[in-house]
Amino acid sequence: MDEWFVVKVINFDEKTKKFEVLDEEAGDDEEGGVQKTYKLSASCIIPFPERNDPSGTQEFPAGRNVLAVYPETTALYKATVISTPRKRKSDEYLLEFDDGALPQRTVPFHKVVPLPEWHRQ
């Protein structure tokens, strides 16, 4: 299973062409609550849309599979678009998360990204 989570880019290494990123959530008790850093290639990073500019972002139609930040977490999960911000006259998507146990939730447009092509199988 793939894991997707919110990170903050803190550095780009010109030599290795990798981004150094910081996990937005502190580690669990076993790790002493310390935020982890990772070195990732650009192909492992999906940038979020600009929070202040909904007009310049891609809109996903109803029925499209996306990755979205589950409310009140820093983890992204596969979800299906139920209705778009334009239809809802808001800046939020109505999504149904794929685990089946999770109810439909509203998620701000800037926390929804395309599901990578290689992940759509």
Automatic annotation (TrEMBL):
Keyword Nucleus on entry = yes
Compartments, as annotated in UniProt: Nucleus
Q: Where does this protein chiefly localize? A: nucleus
Domain SGF29 C-terminal residue range list: 1-121
Recorded hits in PROSITE patterns, A to Z, give: SGF29_C
Keywords from UniProt, A to Z, are: Nucleus, Transcription, Transcription regulation
GO CC annotation terms, alphabetical: nucleus; SAGA complex
PANTHER family assigned to the protein according to its UniProt record, in alphabetical order: SAGA-ASSOCIATED FACTOR 29
Q: What is this protein called?
A: SGF29 C-terminal domain-containing protein
Q: Give the source species.
A: Gossypium tomentosum
